[in-house]
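Assemble and predict.
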Amino acid sequence: MQLILSLFLSLTPPAPQDAPKKLEVVTTLGVLASLAREVGGDHVHAEALADPRQDPHYVEPKPTLMQKARAADAFIEVGLQLELWGEKVASGSGNPRIQQGQPGRIVASTGVQTLELPAVLSREWGDVHPYGNPHVWLDPLNAKIMAGNIAASFEKIDPTNAEEYKRNLEAFEKHIDEALFGKALVDEVGGKQLARQARQGRLAEYLKQSDLGAKLGGWLKQAEPLRGRPIVSYHKSWIYFAERFGLTIPVEIEEKPGISPSARHRDQVLALIRDQKIKTILQEVFYERSAADYLAKETGAHAVIVPLDLGEQVEAHSYFELIDLILGKVLESETAPTGTR
Amino acid sequence: MQVRTPVLALAALVTAARLPAAQTPPQPAQEPPKDPQILKLDRKIDDLNDRIDSLEDELARERQAHATPPQSASAFNPGITVFGNFFSRWDDQPVFLDDDPTAARVDDNISLREVELDFRAAIDPWADGVVIATYESDVPNDFNASIEEGYVVLKKLPILDSAPGGLKVKLGRFRPEFGRFNYVHLHDLPQPTYPRALTTFLGTEGFTQDGVSGEFFLPSGSESSTLEATIQVLDGGGLPLAADVPGNQVASLGHLKWFRDLTDSTNIELGASGYESDSSHQLFGVDATYKWKPLAGGEWRSFLIGGEVFASHIDDPTLGNDPIGYYLWSQYQFDKNVYLGARYDHAEEITDETQKTDVIGTYLTYYTTEFLRFRLSLEHTESDVAELDGLNTAALEVNMVFGSHPVEPYWVNR
């Protein structure tokens, strides 16, 4: 009995040292690690559990992931039942700081207004998410809310650096506003006003009435050729991105969320691509691409394969690079003649 | 009338004088003067805008809160999942329950083999609770109800802020951590039946026992590998090789699992298990599983190969002389929903190690989703047990899952 007790005690994490210690943060997705680094600065070491080449819905909760979460001060997830595997990792880690309800368990999507909230919950509709579509981070305005939630939690877990987390959050929010609307417009009107107009879908009207259209810059200026353009996506991952940048998605290649397309459904998508002269088939890197390639070959549309998360393993290493990458690829597809890419 | 004429004339003159002025083109807009009053109003507008911002943020949060399903006392009810497993078999010779020719015949039948009700919820900040009730039918239309598992998991210890080694304590009735497949429930197996070696040494439905379990991480020396240990103290008996051991004779079980990520898409798991009822009734096992599942397209392609060996140490005149058993299995995923697998089993009878049975089988599995599975299988048996020798069996298994779907990695997602 004494032997077992001494073995357990030898496995207890060492007592906190006097030297400043970084907050150890594990996140389900790379995008959350990026936001944690933005608001945490030098006080945080953040590591993502999922690889950005993986489907974030289905990550194997391996013991190595549980081990990474074992010593974490905080565990950040998107929530909205996107990462069901995250709970298995957190509980398997045996780390009491990151269990549900603890300050170290951070649900980044809290307060985000979700889209596609189901009126009826049934598996008949495929892999529906009861709290709405969870791919919220692909709207930069939602990224600000998520960063705000992360900063607020860091302030609770590590109050000695609270002021710095606040400052970092403000800097990140300003950076997002400038990247989205352009610096000149943000300097003149302010990010809050612009964000409000954009959320309410009145930004174009507001800029016209205020004679500020010429000052629009950033991603929204780049996205002007996309406004009103229909695209096709594989999964319902892109609705937040589409809404922010003015795209429409009349159909998905998947018949229902999580359900592979039947030949009949694929033919319906093909007819719709031809009918609406759709040029872009937007698909995540982790899905099998034969259906997208077939549709591209038959219609001349372009299969645009991009990551929806970021990390060392893909071309996007920060939140800003991720939006740059996706927007750039869609623009490239939409401005190129059909069948040329 | 005389008096009013000059007044009207004056009014007409004034009107005439004003008309041309009204028609004059507007002058270019002048920069509004920065009147202190206007500056004050500007500041007020900014303040109001800020208030609108915060109110809209609050409204968004409220909308989100109201968008979630209504919370009531029923929110504390456990998550409930129902598993139903149908099994139809066609055999070319009579098959008896437990290979006993005096027992009921179970060949050529269609049956609802098992229904499981899985209840789980957080009990309080310290613990989670799980109860799994099972209705199983070894013979069609004859159901036995039992509690397959019912335990509490202590997530943290009141005496320590952080459990050593991520210690997780489980108390109650559970499937002990012996080998690779024993803790996997029937509905979650990658094959339609438990391997012959497993049923020989751990029981026809696998090994379930009451007891206490502690699971913790040991230092592995590498970020890409883990070493997990499980120590369990169990009620005595329950295993075929310890069937006559009384329940009050406590048994112990240890399991060590080493897991390593070999590459981004491959990993290996090695396990060693030991069970002791007393020095005359011991069971040992080793298991290995290799897995390939690419990161991109991993839902469409995967490959697994594994095996497990059971070796007993028995000093009991009513049982055989240290019988052994093993199985090898493999599975390849061709598409998002289609898996093809094969398994080879070898087992010596617990009561007579000279009586050997070998089974070879192949399985084709189709998932509509992770909640509904169809599986066809073919098996051929060669055995020293006369009732089994030469048996050929074809089977169709249908498995359904509905309910709140606990966060467990089903095989389809592994």
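Residues 158-413 of chain B form a domain with the Porin fold (CATH 2.40.160.10).
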